[in-house]
Amino acid sequence: MWFHIISLVTPADALSLSAVCKEARPFARRRSLSEIHLHSRNFDKICDFLLADTSDRLHWVRDLTLAGDIFGSETSLYQYDLKDGDNIKFEWVPVFLEILQLAHNLRRLSLSGTEVLLKMEPAIGDAFVALPELTSLELNHAGSHTIRMLSRLQSTVRHLIVHHDTASDTGRTFYEYLTHGVTFPGVETIEFGDLDSEPYPLTTKLYLDRQWPDVRHLTLSQTSLTPMSTCARLFSGIRSLYLKYAIGYDPRTPPLWPSLDFVRVYHLKLREESSEYEHPPRILKAIRKPSPVVLSIRARVPLNNMNFWIALLECAPRLRCLDFIVIYDDTGKDRLCKWIEDISDVFASSRLLCIRIRIHDRFCKLSDIHFLLPSLEHFARGPGPAAFVGRRVSTCEDGRSIEAISHESGKHILAAIRSADFGDGKNLDGLVSVRRGKEVEAMSDGYYAHEHDMSGVIHTRPVV
To answer: Which of 131-140, 269-278, 338-347 has the lowest mean pLDDT?
Structure first.
């Protein structure tokens, strides 16, 4: 029984439990040792403890992480040069190597400064390639030495994450993986970060002769430039594809993976910090294909152009929750209020259940907003970073009244509206906690959040 209970708690909680419960101590102690995070402040103490009794301590380590600060300054990982390595600390490497060589039951390993380690101590690569139970491997600051080591990867590894060193003069490419004979035997899930593209004619034959068909889940993150057509040739059998800041993706490309599972997009976030989404047509094009249910967007669009908002609703017929940051010239208060009035007319005929608007504005009063939208139940505005204060909007004989609700209630309401299982009949009033000893006397028709980080909700459906 204790084994199943302990498996549900964190290693830190298990350590606390082992100190107060004698019956649970053996199981809790093992759980507390299962995940080890090594960094500059605890490295010597933890390693000495583990090596003092490997059969009863290191034996139970299943998850091991080496943080980047162990090398000294974090920027040292990007400034490192084999000819001048004075800015890197290496005195701890022999101890870490011993840990790897004796951690026979390790399941997951995460390394920072991978390329630096492999250059200075090749035995590090030999050690974790030889780990018999390793199933998950995460390698950060990877380079050419890392790729050569991966060609010797054991077939036990099922999940692989490789983030490449962006400071290198030579970018890492799939061509380099192929020429070094990397086969990824047994790997089902792969994430690559910071991959460069290579000239297509250079790799045509390799792409045809060598593929990684066993990979089922592929993630391209950071500034990966590899074209999707290249990925389709190499990873012909994937069932899921996740693009995370992968700018090599071209949405105009025709479908490339017949085996790729089709999953409807629920929540689409467009968070481009450049000027790409300042042009309405690009926004609409990015929204049309996914047709999300929840859309979060940051955009600089003309407030007087209602055609954009009408077209947005047409591009996303499944849209039920809209969350957008509007960037505009904050010198025109009248223009803002006119936009709020116009936008309410556009959304009034839509099927939207929830609208959350964030506006960069320091003078718009709450009274300028809430009376304009008869169906309004949630909205927000605010001038700077701070916690938001929730408000409850109720209808009475004298009109609409506003009453403060707790910050926690506001968060629960927002989470409920944006959740995948939100639907008709959701009782939002039931999520409001009593504030300052006052009881809720009636059902409300709305809530809004005065949120100082310019986040909030406009909700346009009746509260049951």
So the answer is: 269-278
